[in-house]
Design brief:
The chain is globular, with a radius of gyration of 20 Å. Strand 2 and strand 3 form a beta hairpin. The protein is of the alpha+beta class and 265 residues long. Helix 1 packs antiparallel against helix 2, helix 8 crosses helix 10 and helix 9 packs across helix 10. It has 10 helices and 4 strands; from the N terminus they run E-H-E-E-H-E-H-H-H-H-H-H-H-H. A 4-stranded antiparallel sheet has the order 2-3-1-4, covered by helices on one side. It is 48% helix and 9% strand. The protein has 2 domains: 166 residues, Alpha-Beta Plaits (2-Layer Sandwich), CATH 3.30.70.1290; 73 residues.
Length: 265
């Protein structure tokens, strides 16, 4: 079956994701994470790419990166190939290390850039590795590099990234507050994580919907019983299809999952 051609970003900005094959924890050890940082830096010297955000988790990695698509593909091929050789040698493994080719998502607007920027930095929080207000403490994320306000740590961030930081945020606190905001964007990721994003957005929309209807004075309260009305349910499902660009069937399936989780809290 032929591969689907990649979409080309008009801004040359992409959200890139790579993942271990079969969800393997290929970056689980500290040396493996450091090796990936080393490779990302090493191949920047021969490929004109600009990194604006990154986060290395135990079984996948996110990059917010600018480059022409051809250069990006060349860069990622070198990085993943280098890491595969390292991983197989260190673990005495053979075969594939990554789940297919890297995923890429076009970043076409400034608002989507900043939402993706935040999403990447908050990955360790969503995984339960650190508290929400401590996200810059995660060592293998550009959040830590930004907070140091210096390009002298990993040297991964492009010089434009630090200039961008100063133009967007006037203080450390504004940078921290920005990362606590929520939005309804769904970002490219593993299938499980995409569903988790969708469920979080539905929960957020449900709380707002019920509050606007005057049916729930405290939006954090379990909301499952509130949608027993068929007309309310139809209205909310229509809202989901419009806001999250879901099919009616998918919206209904995800809403049931939200209701089930609310009912067991």
């Amino acid at each position: 079956m032929p591969r689907t051609p990649r979409k080309t970003s008009s801004t040359d900005m992409y959200h890139v994701i790579i993942r271990g094959i079969d969800k393997n924890f290929i970056f689980q050890t500290l040396p493996s994470k450091w090796e990936m940082l080393h490779l990302l830096h090493l191949y920047m010297e021969s490929n004109p790419v600009e990194i604006y955000a990154y986060c290395i988790m135990d079984n996948h990695m996110h990059l917010l990166i600018r480059a022409p698509l051809k250069e990006l593909s060349c860069y990622m091929q070198k990085v993943t190939g280098g890491f595969a050789r390292y991983y197989n040698y260190k673990g005495n493994h053979t075969g594939y290390v990554f789940q297919g080719r890297f995923k890429s998502e076009c970043i076409e607007t400034e608002s989507y850039f900043w939402s993706c920027f935040r999403y990447i930095h908050m990955n360790p929080v969503k995984a339960g590795l650190i508290p929400s207000d401590s996200f810059p403490d995660y060592l293998f994320s550009s959040a830590a590099e930004y907070m140091k306000n210096s390009l002298s740590s990993s040297h991964l961030l492009h010089s434009k990234a630090m200039h961008m930081l100063h133009s967007r945020f006037d203080s450390r606190q504004s940078f921290l507050r920005f990362h606590q905001k929520k939005d309804l964007n769904i970002f490219e990721d593993t299938s499980e994580e995409i569903e988790a994003q969708q469920l979080a957005c539905i929960t957020q929309l449900l709380c707002t919907f019920l509050s606007d209807k005057g049916l729930c004075s405290n939006p954090s309260v379990a909301a499952a019983p509130m949608l027993h009305s068929a007309s309310l349910r139809r209205e909310f499902l229509q809202l989901l299809t419009e806001k999250l660009q879901l099919s009616g069937r998918k919206a209904s399936q995800l809403l049931k999952l939200v209701e089930t989780s609310k009912g067991t809290e």
